[in-house]
Amino acid sequence: MNKIKSKLEQLENVICRRQDDLFRFAYMRLGNRADAEDAVQDVFLRLFRSDVDLTRVDDVERYLFRAVANRCCDRLRSRRSVSLSVDTLAAQPVPDDDREIHAEYERVAGLLSSLPDEQAEVLRMRCYDALPFALIAEITDSSEATVKSRYRYAVGHLKQLLTTKNAKQ
Amino acid sequence: MKKITDTENSGFNYDETVDELNPRCEFHASDDLRDRIIRAAREESASTGRRPRFLHRTAVWLTAAAVVVVALLAVNPFRIYRAYAVSRMFAAAADQFGGTPAFSMEIDVRTDPAENFSYIDADADFVTHSLTVEPYVGRWRLEKPQRVAVNDGHNIWLWVTTIDAGIKFQPTDLGVLEDFAVLLDPQAMLSREESQALANRKAKYVKRVDGDAVVLTVDIPAEGEFVHGVGRNTSISESNTRREYRFDRGSGRLLGMKIDMLDGGTATTIVEMKNIVYDIEVDASLFTHPEDGIAWTDLTKPVGSDLFAGITPEEALKRMFAAMRTWDTSVLGQIITFVPVDRFEKYKGCMLVESGDHFRSGNYAGVFVPCKVKFADGSTEKLLVALRNDNEKKAWVLDGGM
């Protein structure tokens, strides 16, 4: 029982340290609080059930971001399977407390919308989630060189887009 | 929130563009998210929860490993399956177990019919175990020819049919089942494999299609220390192993699992889970224990006494054999708690001649103390005594036989 108590305390420490980062990570992909927090909760519970040593920060971080990324993919896939369109999602009311973060989600989604999914995801993870390239490579099951290459293309593409946009203004 | 201002090792400077993608506001999870997660985790930990979890030291068997993986991968025609996709296979199979009210399976294990459930011997014949589980209720029955364990929803009852003796445990004390505890909750087992796929960079996965099944082979480097060699290859967690999972291609359900022990260049199948039947109806009498004819030892009360607390295992051993010599059952009963004292009557009157330093081995929670005893008739015997003190009082108790 002491082991379980100790593991619960360790879990609580990890949650305190990482819940906001993971929530942001999930929200920026799913676009609403309920789904994002469901994904985060599910991942923390899976972490608790797993054999990952909760005192090993590197292992835990790697696990958490990979697992949340997976959950988000699952959720997005299940949305597609029930034919829930982006327009339908956008039409869902946003609670007052979440207006700011939802606007941020839409701003970034808009910026990245013209990029291929792989490039957009690398850019989001690197710039928005501040993840190192090595971890992004693990999460996306790509080599670090591929990730950096996608990053360069994505930033170059985005720079071109912003330049054109500014010129029009 | 960390702000990215350069392109870290990418060789380009795109500061302005990257600035556009830096967060412009703070994200905060709901105030009660942490409490919700902790509450759910606590409920899972408690056996009285809606869906009991079986996470004890025994769970480590699935972190066992293979040594010939490099050679295998160099010649095998299958592609190394990506951890990302692998984790999904495990997650899908885990969900299937989550949705079934009861399931049964057969498990063939190379072991002795009367030994502990965790005991394996690659040279022994297969012994078929039958397992029936009601995951949401928390009841199960595990049986092999001479040993039965039942969780009736309140306690675990384990008895040996050949000696008509049994033990009653707290339902949380799944250490009694050792590695088999993992099989009682395949959903957790598969979730753990999923987490390995996500977290363990050393894990290797090979997938192949075999008719209507997808076969996934898992190799993960071994854990555990075996400086003294004791314990190696005597349980699944303490062996180099390879796991092979068979999933139904259509439904994603787990069809079976096989564990090979890898000893040097030889692979021997030691455990095979098969004939998994989902969504079965179970007769409640399966989860009952015999009321008569079995001498029950109740271990639901706290284990360990002050007499054997706060001393070294060597001192505990000396104290135990001092009591053996005079057959002081009031003392012996404080260290021999898992079985009736009279099971050790063979050692009545014997004397401790010498003892060595204790040591640990593998994943075993206790220690081993080598020693030599002399019987009343002058004969001697070398023993390796297993003692453990992972109880509330930190008191040493004899674990198993000698």
Describe this structure in words.
The complex is a heterodimer of chains A (169) and B (402). Chain A is an all-alpha fold. Chain A has 2 domains: 1-98, no CATH class; 114-169, Winged helix-like DNA-binding domain superfamily/Winged helix DNA-binding domain (Arc Repressor Mutant, subunit A, Orthogonal Bundle). Chain A has helices at residues 2-30, 33-49, 57-81, 86-91, 99-112, 117-128, 133-139, 144-168. The longest helix of chain A has 29 residues, at 2-30. With 402 residues, chain B is of the alpha+beta class. Chain B folds into 2 domains: 57-296, Clam (outer membrane lipoprotein receptor (LolB), chain A); 302-398, Nuclear Transport Factor 2, Chain: A, CATH 3.10.450. Chain B has helices spanning 15-21, 33-45, 69-75, 83-98, 180-183, 186-199, 313-326, 329-335, and strands spanning 103-110, 126-134, 139-144, 147-151, 156-160, 165-169, 204-210, 213-219, 241-248, 254-263, 266-278, 295-298, 351-355, 367-374, 380-388, 397-398. In chain B, a hairpin with a 4-residue loop joins strand 5 and strand 6 (165-169). Mean pLDDT of chain B is 75; it is low at 1-12, 47-81 and 224-238. The chains are: A mainly alpha (169), B alpha+beta (402). At the A-B interface, helix 1, helix 2, helix 3, helix 5 and helix 6 of A face helix 1, helix 2, helix 4 and helix 6 of B.
